[in-house]
Every structure is written in structure tokens, then in C-alpha cells.
Design goal:
The chain has 259 residues and is an alpha/beta fold. Helix content is 40%, strand content 14%. It folds into two domains: 178 residues, Nucleotidyltransferase, domain 5, CATH 3.30.420; 50 residues, no CATH class. The longest helix has 18 residues. The two termini are 34 Å apart.
Length: 259
């Protein structure tokens, strides 16, 4: 594979109870650690989400409430999982917009900061969409000339993501071969929080990224920021708001604000 690794790269995929970053929970996770010497480690397990899995979610990933009844809950595996990610860069398919924000929330409930500040983030879907505009199954067909069997099983998806990533590295000469280059290609510096409720404007100022206040500086409307802190928003967004408000002395950041 045409890739320069200075440290491990962890590919991961989640199956969840739904798509709400703040409310939904993980029911399955698969992590594949690619080491600089090309050695691979794979761990896959079911997780009891602590809430009912809706039938609509089961229809997608085929994981039932009965299947996870005896599985560990996320806090039971959080420390070991965090250790598996420690010192590694991170990759996935649509991971920047969904999987990482969900995982940030789950770790946040366990008071475990995630991801490591120095971790490079590579989203294989971003590369694919910038080049071809397709889904994972179509990407697998396009790059690997194969049909993705077992889609929406976390391990099947994470293995397919790695295969697609390998083919992208061979196909495109302008996306880079180091994690620093791939991180820059996959990410926008305008994003402030993983849930994309905040962003930076052209002047580098942090503004709201949604609703009636979209584009308005957070520091110009601390009342709206306070409303968000009391509302049902993802913890990564709230932590970012706490840091912003603390920077002007509006409110000291409570526990967890450094995550």
C-alpha cells in the first residue's frame, strides 16, 4: 500500500441505535489497527446500548435487543478501547461527521477525552466524495471491483473501508501518502466541534453554524450559547462553547470542559 505510517492507524466503524449524535448509542464497534510494519489487529464486539434498539435501526444493521442483552455496556470497555486508540491516527468512512462524534459522546460520558489532540483524522468518504460522489457499497464496487457482502456489519464495513482506502492511495497522486497530508485533505479547518454546530468564518472567528444565528459570532450572542448549554446538544459542542465563554470571562468551564 502506498502509505507512509509513522505510527499506527486505526480504522473503525460503528453500528448504532440511530443517527442522533447526542441521544443515540453504539451497539457494535469494530476497530482495525494498521501498524507501520503492515501488521493488523482487529477487535469487534457487540455493546449493550442501555436503551432499546428501534426496529428501524435493526432493519439496517440486523442487530436486535436480544443480541446485545448480555453484551457489555460502553463504560465496561471504555478504558480498554481508549488504550487501543492511544498513540494512533484514526480513519473511517464518514467518520468525521458521524462515527467520531458518536464516539466522542460515549467517551465523554465516561470522562475520557477523545480523540488524542495529536491524532490525525482521515475520512475515506471525504476522499471518495471529492473524487467520485458515492456510498461505501458503491465505493467498494468502484475501487475494488467487488460487491460488498454483509454491509452494515461493523467488521465488514471497516474491512471494506480499508480496502477502498488502499485503492484510493494507488489511484490518486494528489491526496498525499502521509497521515499529515491525508488529514489535511479529509478535514476542514473551519470546523470547531465534531457535531458541526460551530465553525470558523473567513476571519477565523467562531460562529454558529446552524439556525437563525448561522454565521453570527458566538461572543456576540452569549445568551444563545447559554441556551445551547442547557439544551439537548452534543457534549463536544457544549465543551467548545464553555471554552469560548470562559475566554471572555462569561462563565467558568465546568468539569469535562477540557475534553
Amino acid at each position: 500500500m502506498k502509505l507512509t505510517l509513522k505510527r499506527p492507524l486505526v480504522f473503525f466503524d460503528l453500528e448504532t441505535t440511530g443517527t442522533d449524535i447526542a441521544r443515540d448509542r453504539i451497539v457494535q464497534i469494530s476497530v482495525l489497527k494498521l501498524h507501520p510494519d503492515a501488521r493488523e489487529e482487529v477487535r469487534t464486539r457487540l455493546i449493550n446500548p442501555g436503551i432499546l434498539i428501534p426496529a428501524s435501526a435493526t432493519a439496517v444493521h440486523r442487530i436486535t435487543n436480544e443480541a446485545v442483552a448480555e453484551a457489555p455496556k460502553f463504560p465496561d470497555i471504555a478504558k480498554g478501547l481508549a488504550e487501543f486508540f492511544r498513540g494512533a491516527d484514526i480513519a473511517g468512512f464518514n467518520s468525521n461527521r458521524f462515527d467520531i462524534p458518536i464516539l466522542v459522546e460515549e467517551f465523554g460520558r465516561c470522562s475520557i477525552p477523545f480523540p488524542d489532540p495529536e491524532a490525525k483524522l482521515v475520512d475515506v468518504q471525504v476522499i471518495y466524495h471529492r473524487k467520485e460522489e458515492r456510498t461505501l457499497a458503491a465505493a467498494y464496487k468502484f475501487y475494488c471491483s467487488k460487491t460488498l457482502e454483509g454491509a452494515h456489519d461493523a467488521e465488514a464495513d471497516v474491512r471494506a473501508t480499508l480496502e477502498v482506502f488502499r485503492e484510493q492511495l494507488e489511484k490518486y497522486d494528489d491526496i498525499g501518502t502521509t497521515l499529515e497530508e491525508l488529514h489535511r485533505y479529509s478535514n476542514s479547518d473551519s470546523i470547531v466541534d465534531y457535531a458541526r454546530k460551530l465553525m470558523r468564518n473567513d476571519k477565523g472567528e467562531i460562529v454558529f453554524a446552524f439556525g437563525k444565528n448561522r454565521g453570527k459570532r458566538v461572543l456576540d450572542d452569549p445568551g444563545y450559547a447559554e441556551w445551547m448549554l442547557e439544551g439537548d446538544f452534543p457534549e463536544s459542542t457544549k465543551n467548545a462553547l464553555r471554552r469560548i465563554l470562559a475566554s471572555r470571562g462569561s462563565k467558568p468551564p465546568p468539569r469535562g470542559a477540557d475534553q
